[in-house]
Amino acid sequence: MKRPGILALRRSVVTAATCVLLITIGRAQERTSATAAPTGARAADDLDSQVRELRTVVEEMRAENAQSRAEMRELRQELQDTRRLLAPLAASANANRALPTTTQPGQYGSSQYGSSQYDSSSGSAAVSSSQSAQVSVEPMDLGGRVQKLEESTQLLGSKIDEQYQTKVETAGKYRARLSGIVLMNAFRNVGASDNADFPNFAQPVAPGDPVASLGATLRQTEIGLEIFGPNLAGAKSSAHVEFDFAGGFPSTPNGVNFGIARMQTASLRLDWKNTSVITGQDSLFFSPLSPTSFASLATPAFAYAGNLWGWTPQIRIEHRFDLSHQQTVTLQAGILDNLNWEPPYNPYLRTLQAGERSGRPAYALRTAWSRPVFEHPLSFAVAGYYGRQNWGWDRYVDAWAGMTDWQIPILRRLTLSGEFYRGRGVGGLGAGIGRAVLFGGDPSLPTTPIRGLDSAGGWTQLKLQLTPKLELNGVFAEDDAFASDVRGFAVDANNFITILGRNRGALGNLVYRPRSDLVLSAEFRRLHSFPVYSNASATNQVNLAMGILF
After folding, report:
1. Which CATH number belongs to the domain containing residue 473 in this structure?
2. What is d(CA 330, CA 325) in angstroms, rounded to the nearest whole number?
3. Cα 502 → chain centroid
4. N or C end of the chain, less CB within 10 A?
5. Same domain for 202 and 100
6. Degrees, nearest 5: CA angle 178-182-183
7. Is residue 356 part of a domain?
8. What pLDDT, on the 0 to 100 scale, is given for residue 93?
9. One domain, residues 464 and 513
């Protein structure tokens, strides 16, 4: 028989072991639940947060929707109130328009108005008559204002639609604007010239060729793109590039209709309030004007008859001084690529021209004064140009020119404009009918003497604005290469080309714009060219043009 003490000891040990085991299991379960609880709690918290965010968004949308509905109801109520207020006034205006004309004082002159106002026996009638006139005028003025408001609203809507239609999407964040003209020219020539569709000077009719010719072209169509860039140091930046399709013809069947695209200008600008910096290939800033003509856009009208022109790489700066009485003085100065219009000797590789071989750029300066007269600019300007040329074997020519241009509003609808130049060796600007120098023999020989060609020329235009949509232009132009420089020094055989001593031109055209984006033009042009060593030639052209601007 076991002792009671031993039994009690065994019970105590078993009880203690059981307690330890239960405590260990409990702690393990607590650690497991403690590990799982945070993960579940985080998931629950995230779900609650998302639900709260969704509820917040829904509540905001409901609030905005309710606010929009309230604003719409207010606008509708205001519109109805306005209509109720305008209805009696409009009815009163219509009624006043229907009254006999004798009740409106002063309509037929001062005699009736005076008899009703100053007759002593009808003073009260005069007072009542003037009061009725006041009542009748005010509703009519209000009705007119409402009509003008409606017209302004329609105009604003059309402008918004137009802006949306003309919007150009770009890869960058800055906006761009597309512009240009699709131009169709139909022409008839009597006589021969250097170019059939937009002639520059006349030539003799070749043996066997007809005197008259007829044709049409669209290669003077132009496309331009303007980009508006960021502000830099307080200046607005922009860029502009313009193309046409007058760069020649591909050697394919019917290639005359497949004009090659040609870059005219590509420039970048920085514009401050009174100062501008321009760099790129641009027109000649010291010869900014050209005659008005839609028959000749690929080259400006009379480009070889006194109208200096060129699309030349350059860097220039402009500064404007605002004087009193709306007067402005503009100073322009720049350096230009020293080009001489020599044809490329390689169609793929660029070769240097005489001006570039001198190692110096060309320089130009212009100053102009202007002020508005009859809502048109009245301006006068003078300019100068200089460039040094190296024609090989240390044969240098200093090219120079002095220019002036003007715009004079004679009457409100009559304006006189033009340019004049005098220079030497500036065939690269179109002067001297495109010729800069003369050779006294074979140009390839180093001993052949060379001489810069002296020339003078200009053009003037008279513009008559017949109606706001119809204008009449008349232009006379002439370029005179001094024959005394040619005779006894150079001959055609040594220059391999006919030397023109004078090129004279005149034109008249009608330009009709039924809408701002539609142009119709009819032009007659005559060119009379005088070679130094042969007989003169003349050509006449009738040109009909239709263009859509965009």
Report:
1. 2.40.160
2. 15
3. 35
4. N
5. no
6. 145
7. yes
8. 53
9. yes
Q: Could you please report the per-residue DSSP string of 157-190?
A: HHHHHHHHHT-B--SSSS-EEEEEEEEEEEEEEE
SS3 of 394, please?
coil
Distance CA 20, CA 12 (A): 12
Q: Which amino acid is at 40?
A: G
Domain, as residue range, for 135? 82-105+125-164
Cα–Cα distance between 205 and 193 in angstroms, integer?
8
Look at the alpha carbons of 155, 156, 157, 161 in this order and tell me if their dihedral is positive or negative.
positive
Tokens of 311: 């699309």
Contact 139, 95 (CB under 8 A): no
Q: Measured between alpha carbons, how far is 247 from 254 in angstroms, rounded to an integer?
A: 16
pLDDT of residue 464: 97
What pLDDT shows up at residue 413? 95
- Taking the C-alpha atoms of residue 332 and residue 349, their distance in angstroms, rounded to an integer, is 33
Same domain for 93 and 187? Answer: no
Q: For the segment 233-279, what is each residue's pLDDT rounded down to a tens digit?
A: 999 999 999 999 999 999 999 999 999 999 999 999 999 999 999 99
How many domains are there within the chain?
A: 2
What integer is the mean pLDDT of 313-342? 95
Nearest CA among 311, 447, 331, 436 for reference residue 382: 331
Looking at the fold, whether 132 and 207 belong to one and the same domain comes out as no
Taking residue 288's Cβ as centre, other Cβ atoms within 10 Å add up to: 17
Per-residue pLDDT for 128 more than 50? Answer: no
Is residue 390 a part of any domain in this protein? yes
pLDDT at 174: 85
Could you tell me if 524 and 507 are in contact, meaning their C-beta atoms sit under 8 angstroms apart?
yes
Distance CA 395, CA 138 (A): 84
User: Are 381 and 406 in contact, with CB atoms under 8 Å apart?
Assistant: yes
Where does the pLDDT of residue 409 fall: very low under 50, low under 70, confident under 90, or very high at 90 and above?
Answer: very high
Does 3 fall in a domain? no
Specify the pLDDT at position 386: 98
Residue 336 has pLDDT above 90, yes or no: yes
Query: 204 and 151 in one domain?
Result: no
Euclidean distance between the first and the last CA atom of the chain, given in angstroms as a whole number: 124
Q: Check if the beta carbon of residue 364 is closer than 8 Å to that of residue 336.
A: yes
Whether 495 and 437 share a structural domain: yes
The reply to whether 97 and 186 lie within a common domain is no
**Six token digits for residue 44:** 């629950």
Alpha-carbon distance values, 295 to 99, 180, 187, 240, 396 (Å): 57, 16, 9, 24, 38
Could you report the per-residue pLDDT of 459-472, keeping only the tens digit for each? 999 999 999 999 99
The answer to whether residues 89 and 208 belong to one domain is: no
pTM to 2 decimals? 0.69
CA distance 350 to 353: 9
Is 398 contained in some domain? yes
Average pLDDT over residues 78-106: 58
